[in-house]
Amino acid sequence: MNTPGDRPFSLARMAAVFLKELVQMRRDRLTFAIMLGIPVVQLLLFGYAIDTDPRHLPMVVERRADGPMVRSLIASLRASSYFDIIAVTDRAGEGEAMLRDGRASFLLSIPEGFEERLVRGERPQILIAADASDPVAAGGPLGALDEIARRALAPELIGPLAGLAQGPPPYEIVRLRMFNPASVTAFNIVPGLLGVILTMTMVMITSIALTRESERGTMEALLATPVRPAEIMIGKTTPYILVGAVQTLLVLIAGRLLFAIPFTGSLGAFTLAAAVFIFTNLMLGYLISTVARTQMQAMQMTFFIFLPSILLSGFMFPFAAMPVWAQAIGEGLPLTHFLRLVREIMLKGGGYADIWNDLWPLLVTLALFTLGALARFRRTLD
Amino acid sequence: MSEAPAIAVEGMTKIFGGRKVVDAVDLTVPRGAIYGFLGPNGSGKTTTIRMVCGLLRPDAGRGTCLGHDVIADAQAIKGRTGYMTQRFSLYEDLSIRENLDFVARLYRLSDRRARVDRALEELGLAARSRQLAGTLSGGWKQRLALAASMIHAPDLLLLDEPTAGVDPKARRDFWDQIRKFSARGVTTLVSTHYMDEAVQCDAIAFIAYGRKLLDAPIAEVQARVGLFARLVRGPGLDAIAEALRGAAGIAVVARFGAELHVAGTDESALDRALAAIAGRPGVTIGPIEAGLEETFIHLMAQSTDTFR
């Protein structure tokens, strides 16, 4: 019975299949590139960009007193790797404004008469306010401040002031966690998750919009009719705006009911931001579908976008703690701006006036994706 | 205007990856004609049809389709042309009515509902209009696809191997339908490789390896090629076919059931070659008229293979 033709396993047949797959893989250059690209990108992102012990966070110093001690303290802060002092101001309110609009993650406030009161032993307060809407970013540096201040002021506490070097420090550091006083991680994660879910689903669903037509053979008949590219584009993407709206509503309701996430800002501004973000993702997906030739390729390209969106947008790791090049990539991702918008509106009570900074980059990317998709769309089967 | 041909293109050339898939093909299809487009697989039939209706941009060549320039005015051509693709190209996950409705909307038909109803009625699918198109059999899918490509009452119908994989009865019905359209003045360009369909056409163009080898009214095809044929009967036909194949003077050796059709362009050379097997016991050789089948086999064999 066992003729050479029907053995249960044939190495030769297996080799034939193996070689065929190898040839196909070589032909499908895009899949090959992505298969190689994902591990490389992951390695780069995890290895260099992501730092769970965040450093170089932007700080604004509100300095209402001056003197050798204050200068020494600021110099120490500058020297430390935790903070990058982006501005020193003596105008009241300016520091807080920078904290609110996200330019600074920390505000250090040195009160009037700091040195005199310190010398008199009155233990003046140093106020450090942190943007705790991202608790991970706020935690470490707040802890490091004690040591930085102690080391900065120790050389000054000599001679007649040597007595102050004993016992508790001759000043008091007051920590203020703004926007998320209890450092509830969910406050940061849940609004972020909304952006992640929208990115994932909106991009993926439209990324197969055209490739599915091509694969099922329906594209040819579609192109033979007088339908125009923009008509196909809008017709194919708009149904999902509804899906995105439902998803947004679900996350908001779940956030309120399950995690008691506050919604402090303007609902109108939120709706506007969400609508622009959903559009941007739909167009990104559609752009992918004009490039990909198969649904499989479209899926892979979606993940190629999704991965940096999660890692470099500030969703998973503090944005300000990433190196400059990683921040540059992050600035190009729609999710980065949406996360800022959502935190601004939901946690910091932002309204229409506060969203422009992150709305315009979204509008620009939306326009680029749309024009790119229209330019890429092939009206013929060439 | 109405006397101008429906399709008049010349020098149509398409290059894929450095190969001329279609090489300087001229085509003139009179209004109201049923024009057959014949040729082996991969000969460039589909590519030519796609260039005519604006789905592919020709690398060279020019011409008009329904009076519109095929390159500059593809949009206008699309509005007045119905194209039935080789592969079923309607949505399997839409119902029959939804498919027709979708196509009708793409053509922005004002009397959409009435046209869809009429199409369903003509198809005999009115009762099953909610059925998903994917659940239809091959023959029904083909009829639905034809109905969809005719929903906007086009002046030109392009059919790319419309009856591939369809049973003979459905094929006959299909051709009855085409002739009905033709009687109404619709021009039809249909690609096929069925000989029984070729004879239904008013004229045919034969294309192989991207080149047009023949273009003639159906009645003139045999005369143009000038093939002489002999009918061989008797025992051991396989051995005879083997002996004749490739012999000098013999262009075609084709088996039809219990008969062998042998043909060549030079009558005396053909008879000289057949003399070699004439003496075999029980073998009879008689003259017949060369049919389309032998003619096309001959054309195909004659054409140089540019892909090798």
Instruction: Give average pLDDT of chain A, whole number.
Output: 83
Structural domain count of chain B: 2
Please count the helical segments of chain B: 11
Strand arrangement within the widest β-sheet of chain B reads: 6-7-8-3-9-10
Total count of strands of chain B: 14
Helical residue percent of chain A? 55-70%
The secondary-structure class of chain A comes to: alpha/beta
Highlighted features:
heterodimer, A: 382 residues, alpha/beta, abc type-2 transporter like fold, five-stranded mixed β-sheet, 16 helices, 5 strands, elongated, disordered N terminus, B: 308 residues, Rossmann fold, Alpha-Beta Plaits, 2 domains, four-stranded antiparallel β-sheet, 34% helix
Can you give a write-up of this model?
The complex is a heterodimer of chains A (382) and B (308). By secondary structure, chain A is an alpha/beta fold. Chain A folds into 2 domains: 57-178, abc type-2 transporter like fold (3-Layer(aba) Sandwich); 185-376, no CATH class. Helices cover 61% and strands 9% of the residues of chain A. Chain A is built from 16 helices and 5 strands. Chain B is α/β, with parallel strands linked by helices and 308 residues long. Chain B has 2 domains: 7-222, Rossmann fold; 228-289, Alpha-Beta Plaits (2-Layer Sandwich). Chain B contains 11 helices and 14 strands. Chain B has helices spanning 45-52, 74-79, 96-106, 112-123, 138-150, 168-183, 195-198, 221-225, 237-244, 267-278, 292-302; strands spanning 7-16, 19-29, 34-38, 60-65, 68-69, 81-84, 156-160, 187-192, 203-208, 211-217, 228-233, 252-256, 259-264, 284-288. In chain B, a hairpin with a 2-residue loop joins β4 and β5 (68-69). In chain B, α3 crosses α4 and α3 (96-106) runs parallel beside α5 (138-150). The radius of gyration of chain B is 22 Å and the shape is globular.
